[in-house]
Design brief:
The protein is 36% helix and 22% strand. With 198 residues, it is α/β, with parallel strands linked by helices. It has a seven-stranded mixed β-sheet, sandwiched between helices. The structure holds S-adenosyl-L-homocysteine and magnesium ion. Magnesium ion binds next to loops.
């Protein structure tokens, strides 16, 4: 397991795959443990790094993770199997916006796919959140660029940063959720569903 995790870190580095930062995954693992999270839905598997570490938070947490890139999906399945976690991690090969999860629900939803899709993922997947559950989103600082927009030269990058800003605005204006932001790793948010029943 340790060896596989180390290899994944090297593979990600060599192939420019944006895996989660150590402090961020530690925060999520702690959250899983302290809140007795039983089920996680992850949007954006890449090679399975964060899914495998989340599965290591406790002995019983089960993860469903969605990846649309075939090569990364295959790599993730290989890594999950190498860690002996195939009973607790299901890797789904599809575009998250196409997946049908009818009948399923989760204690924690982790959004970590294409930054431009964050609002859409939130709007779709919040319907699959268990009572008391949370939605955690990664990369809200986007390597510090969100607070430093004037320094960005590339139009593409600027577009992504605009979308992250819109997502933060969307969270702040969302009447059904309370969101807390954490200056950990590349910036994390934790959104709790408000209990609107009187
Ligand atoms: N959670 C991973 C990193 C994910 S990187 C980790 O920390 O280890 C983001 C991944 O999301 C990429 O592999 C990309 O292919 C995938 N992705 C982007 N848009 C997607 C979508 N609409 N549906 C599924 N996967 C998507
Ligand atoms: Mg990320």
């Amino acid at each position: 397991m340790k060896e596989t995790i180390f290899q994944m870190e090297r593979y990600a580095e060599a192939n420019n795959i944006p895996i989660i930062e150590l402090d961020s995954i530690k925060f999520i693992m702690k959250y899983i443990k302290l809140n007795n999270v039983k089920s996680v839905l992850e949007i954006g598997t890449a090679i399975g790094y964060s899914a495998i570490l989340m599965a290591n938070a406790t002995e019983s947490v089960e993860i469903t993770t969605i990846e649309k890139d075939e090569k990364r999906y295959r790599e993730a399945v290989k890594n999950v199997n190498a860690c002996g976690l195939d009973k607790r991690i299901e890797v789904v090969y599809n575009d998250a916006l196409e997946v049908n999860l009818a009948g399923h629900s989760y204690d924690l939803i982790f959004i970590d796919a294409a930054k431009g899709g964050y609002i859409k993922y939130f709007e779709k997947f919040c319907n699959y959140l268990n009572p008391g559950g949370v939605i955690i989103t990664d990369n809200l600082k986007f390597h510090g660029l969100v607070k430093n927009k004037s320094s960005i030269k590339s139009k593409n990058l600027k577009g992504i940063v605009d979308k992250i800003e819109k997502y933060i605005e969307f969270l702040d204006n969302n009447k059904d959720y309370v969101t807390k932001y954490y200056d950990i790793g590349d910036g994390l948010s934790v959104s709790f569903k408000k209990n609107n029943e009187k």
